[in-house]
Write a structure and sequence with these properties.
This protein is mainly alpha-helical. It contains eight helices and three strands. It has a three-stranded mixed β-sheet. Bound molecules: zinc ion.
């Protein structure tokens, strides 16, 4: 019966495994002490793993929560996100288009010089809608002023897209190539190509940090402040939305650095 066989296997495993793991070894360290230290090391790794996991994933949950919170009330202001974006673009004298994007796809496209806002922010009259609209116009202003980190990010992102495809192929093909050529060197070469492509991606993540910070706190916030688009007491809440969003980019960089570290660790073996 399928239900009986695995159970007997499970109960048999610890009985044989446990005494072996606490058998006195040749080392002078007391077995119990070694056992405890090993447990402590495992605990430390587990805690470290949870902390890193939290640092990578919590900012994304937090920004969703904050954005959802300030999407209400949906009729807080007389103008919606698109109207504010259009007004800011015109006041700054920028030659920039404005379109509605797919949900959660708010962005500025430097190639077509277009601000795109998700439906909620495009036609929403909420604090989230206005804050996100100002942030995306902030990128358009960076572009118009030739803000170097944005230009660098744009060109590097294009390189990263090509490199990532090639790198993923190189990493997947690595064992096959090594087996076919019977040379470990070709496998290592493929691995280095793969890691190189991940490194470019990590660089894009790191350059994104100052670009996003500048768009939020040096462009969007002063625009919202100076234009009297929101009452002064709403500004700290706008800052909270922008801070939550900024933290997701820090998390993205951290995740990218971790994946790079993982591959470099493989290479060093
Ligand atoms: Zn941005």
């Amino acid at each position: 019966m399928p239900g009986i066989a695995p159970q007997s296997q499970i109960s048999a495993t610890p009985r044989t495994a446990l005494p072996i793991s606490i058998l006195p070894g040749t080392s002078k360290v007391h077995p119990a002490q070694r056992y405890l230290t090993g447990m402590q090391i495992k605990m430390l790794y587990a805690i470290l793993f949870i902390v890193v996991l939290a640092l990578v994933f919590l900012p994304n949950l937090w920004v969703r929560r904050v954005m959802a919170k300030y999407q209400e009330p949906a009729d807080l202001y007389p103008h919606d996100g698109a109207e504010l974006a259009r007004k800011l673009i015109d006041d700054l004298g920028l030659d920039v288009g404005l379109e509605q994007a797919q949900p959660d796809q708010d962005h500025y496209d430097p190639t077509s010089r277009t601000v795109r806002l998700s439906p909620n922010n495009y036609s929403g009259h909420s604090l989230t809608a206005l804050t996100v609209a100002a942030h995306e116009v902030g990128h358009a202003l960076q572009h118009a002023e030739g803000y170097r980190p944005l230009l660098l990010r744009t060109s590097l992102a294009k390189t990263a897209m090509v490199a990532e495809k090639f790198g993923a192929f190189a990493l997947a093909a690595m064992p096959v190539v090594a087996a076919l050529t019977r040379s470990p060197l070709s496998g290592v070469t493929m691995l280095i190509f793969g890691i190189g492509s991940i490194a470019i991606g990590t660089l894009v993540h790191l350059i994104t940090l100052p670009v996003e910070w500048n768009a939020s706190f040096e462009r969007a916030l002063p625009m919202l402040k100076s234009g009297d688009y929101l009452p002064a007491q709403h500004l700290p809440h706008a800052k909270k939305i922008l801070s939550a969003a900024a933290l997701t980019y820090v998390a993205g960089s951290l995740a990218s650095l971790l994946s790079l570290y993982r591959w470099i660790a493989i290479l060093r073996r």
